Amino acid sequence: MSDELDAETLEFAHRMFDLARDGATTELAGYVDAGLPVNLTNQKGDSLLILAAYHAHPETVRALLDRGADHSRANDRGQTALAAAVFRSNAEAVRALLDAGADPDGGNPSAVATAEFFDLPEMLTLLRTG
Questions:
Q1: What contacts 9, CB < 8 A, 6 or more positions away?
Q2: Closest of 117, 59, 39 to residue 83, by C-alpha
Q3: How large is the greatest C-alpha to C-alpha distance in the chain, in angstroms?
Q4: Is the per-residue pLDDT at 130 higher than 90?
Q5: Across all residues in the chain, what is the average pLDDT?
Q6: Which long-range contacts (CB under 8 A, 24 or more apart) does 69-73 make?
Q7: Which residues form the ANK repeats (predicted)?
Q8: Handedness of CA 45, 37, 111, 57 (dihedral sign)
Q9: Which CATH superfamily hosts domain 7-129?
Q10: Nearest to residue 108, comparing CAs of 78, 70, 75, 130?
């Protein structure tokens, strides 16, 4: 049996990642509710949650977290959804991730290190106060 995915399956997966990037919360949540793995990752290790956080879609972040997305999962470069949300200075997504238990010191670079490196004092305060 081949480990290769057929073109139709790959196209579907790419579409799911695009839904996360675009913040198509209702549609993406529907697919997850129908059985799409909530922790699906792309070839770079980016999960649906990381993509939603990086592209500043807090509603999608919340919907994925509500469906069991792993907030501690890091991509192939060690980045987490929390670090992505901090990088984008998206306080609403940061709060949702912190409320779900995301670790500000997790990942490499961590969310705290990201806030410090990019001089994001508001994000640093949010990370320290929750």
A1: none
A2: 117
A3: 52
A4: no
A5: 96
A6: 69/38, 69/39, 70/39, 71/97, 71/100, 71/101, 71/102, 72/102, 72/103, 72/106, 73/39, 73/41, 73/47, 73/49
A7: 44-76, 77-109
A8: positive
A9: Ankyrin repeat-containing domain (1.25.40.20)
A10: 78
pLDDT in tens, 2-24: 467 789 999 999 999 999 999 99
* pLDDT, tens only, 58-96: 999 999 999 999 999 999 999 999 999 999 999 999 999
pLDDT of residue 121: 98
**Residue carrying structure tokens 């909530």:** 38
| Placement of tokens 């799409």 in the chain | 36
For residue 121, say if its preceding peptide bond is cis, omega within 30 degrees of 0: no
Distance of alpha carbon 126 from alpha carbon 84, whole angstroms: 14
Provide the token pair at 8. 């139709």
Q: Taking Cα atoms as reference points, which of 83, 104, 90, 103 lies closest to residue 60?
A: 90
Bridge partners, residue 47, by sequence:
41
